[in-house]
Amino acid sequence: MTKKVRVRFAPSPTGGLHLGGVRTVLYNYLFAKQNGGDFIVRIEDTDQTRFVEGAEEYIFKTLEWCGLQPDESPKHGGQFAPYRQSERKESYRKYAEELVAKGFAYYAFDTAEELDTKRKEIANFQYSHSTRNAMKNSLTLSVEETKKLLDENAQHVVRVKLQPNEEIKFTDLIRGEVHFDTTQVDDKVLLKADGMPTYHLAVVVDDYAMQITHAFRGEEWLPSAPVHIFLWDKLFGLENMPQWAHLPLILKPDGNGKLSKRDGDRLGFPVFAMDWTNAANELSRGFKERGFLPEAFINMLAMLGWNAGTEQEIFTLNELIEKFSLERVHKGGAKFDYEKAKWFNHKWIMQPENCEVLLEQYQDLIPSYFRSKPDDYIIEVLGLVRERCSDIDDLITNSSFFFQTPETIDVAAIQPKWDEKKKAFFETLTSDWQNNFASDAASLEQQFKAIAEAQQIKVGELMLPLRIMLVGGKFGPGVFDIATIIGKEETIKRIENVVASLR
Fold first, then answer.
1. Which pLDDT score, from 0 to 100, does residue 231 have?
2. Are residues 241 and 116 in the same domain?
């Protein structure tokens, strides 16, 4: 009988959700839904020193915005609760004790000071097969000494014990067969002095307890794989181990190293899905607050390390569920390109037939002065300007003159070719429009051209001045569309104000 597919995302509540983390969620989610399985979120909060208030709530808000809701989690419940490792603390010690009893782990009583001394004595010191026999642990102490220390509740950790010169291997769903030499593996701590497990023990115990069938994680976890395989083998049997896939890194734009928050700060783009304020009260602006639609964000992430094998680049979430395959996930890292990310967002901004979708997505991001107009007005404006926009800043820049008179006017662009003839034209135009302002752009344009023809002025010489009078610069959608939307009185006022300022 084939097991039901069960995948998990297991973040630590230590900060904002980096776009690499969201991509891991996405690939887990797509695989689970494609196979009729379950997507689980498990909070790995065993390192209490790094816990950040609000981080867990932020993770779930991010997943909700992205449309990647888990089937089981601390928030959603499930038959394998609890889903926070701190609430499963008692379940880990018995497995650590079992490993010690079988000779696959040992108690280590070395103090922090003793370890620091060793690090000073030995360059690149590692607690491993080559040093363990010179340390204070149950391998070097007698049974009686060890028991006495444990009975006295002496501070200690439990470390894994691998023999050197052995080969550990597994088949990665992306990378194929991967081999490790245990000589290079140090004695990882499995259980900390406070009784909390480290990631190495907890991830194995919890994946077994929650019946996880597939585990997708970043390639930075590959060096830990031999310890995890060893633990699976000794505790539960390799036949019960999930199938693993180690995902490629998301790289800096130049390809030199893993993308980080500092890169975003330095180059001016977000790396978090949503706004995140750290413990130092420093705000990192998110993709959501930059005006990215969740569909665009997910689409962009899917293509960072995967492709469908076709020319298609724009996918809905349902299409991604249908098309996704681990076979087409790249082994190498994917360079992050913010301009390409904005291209995806532009494509999705253009997707909705009804701009009510855009208004709903951006309602918390648009300036307050936009709210002086009804929703129908805002929707009409968004429909007119979205072709030129790839984020919220573009939308505001290309829309602001619909809601308020431009604060600055590029008069210098009009002045060199301004003359009495043009002045007379615009005075005639405003007088004509005062009495007969057409209700549609095409009719306004006809009126404009008729007056130009009557006064024997080329229309082309008049269009730029009109645009600058209405919007303040050399940008914006069709100038007669703008006039139609802002209306007769505002159009005439703007023209008259600029004409009066020209000499």
1. 98
2. yes
